[in-house]
Amino acid sequence: MARAQGISWVKWIWIGVFVVAGFIGLYPRHVRNPDWMGPTRLGTVHLNLQAIDGAKEQWSLEDRKQASDSGKLLDLTGYLKDAQVPQSVAGETYSVTMVGEPTRAVTKVPIDGFSGPFTTTSF
Length: 123
Hints:
about 120 residues; mainly alpha
């Protein structure tokens, strides 16, 4: 008996697997995982701390500050996005520490089940 020409049934199964996997990959992330709703309040606090720390580092480099120098949050506004201090998302207050030390976010209530104070190194 002669063998049929064309693609064997095993290859058709693999093609189907790859097609299904491709559709799953194109399926929106928030539909596949309903818990993913973007950044949490704690994640936003972390992003704000990173932005403030980056601004503090830029400020210290441009103004030739020493490790013992500390600035105020208003001193850093020129180095932040849109020259604005990040808004509080959970009643936290940001305190700028000395150059080389992480900025702190202090809260009166826990954020997403975690209590502060928070720094960029506490995540």
